[in-house]
Amino acid sequence: MALTWLALMVLVGATLPAIVRGLLPPLPRRITGVTPQAVVVLGAGRRQHDGQFSLTTRGLGRLQLAARLAHEHGLPLVVSGGQKTSMAVDEPSESALMADQVRRHWPHLQVLQENESRNTWENAVNTAALLAEQRIDEVMLVSDRAHLPRALLCFQSQGVLAQAVWQKRLPRHAWRPSAGALTMVPEIWYEWLALVWYHLRYL
């Protein structure tokens, strides 16, 4: 009976935005004085339906935010993402799908593509090389809030100064149960585990 009540309390807690917000990995110390020269957005996976590939809902959300920022600040937009598994020759990378969306909806934006990365570390390494060719070392980095601590550490290790930007997904009412908050919990635990792994392997 006690275990049942404990499980119920944990489940209820996982639906409360205030609790879930407290579980998020902390962002690295903010670097002041960054003057962004580009906006970088990281891919969030592809999905396939009837043989056609498209961006995930999260990926589209990231891209829309990044494109708005690039438009507002008059900056180039860098889209980064390949595919975790080997692709067939005719399969588009995440960055190709993102670039296609940008050219369709924001045709005035300058778009740079990094389409070889398979994970966050490769996002940072490959994008840093692309940015160096453009003499850019200060950026706005767009991803999800849970993912940004790991992404920022990777980009900083490559000498890129980055401001973290994310789309708010948790509801404003901190103590009102939310299905959206509950869906973020597995993502948050994944990021904690990934941070440990990245510190052991890369950082």
Automatic annotation (TrEMBL):
Residues 37-194 form the DUF218 domain. It comes from the Bacteria. Coiled coil: none annotated. It holds the Pfam family DUF218. CDD domains: YdcF-like (cd06259). GO terms for biological process: Gram-negative-bacterium-type cell wall biogenesis; peptidoglycan metabolic process. GO terms for cellular component: plasma membrane. Gene3D superfamilies: HUPs. InterPro entries: Cell_Envelope_Assoc (IPR051599), DUF218 (IPR003848), Rossmann-like_a/b/a_fold (IPR014729). Signal peptide: none annotated. This is YdcF family protein.
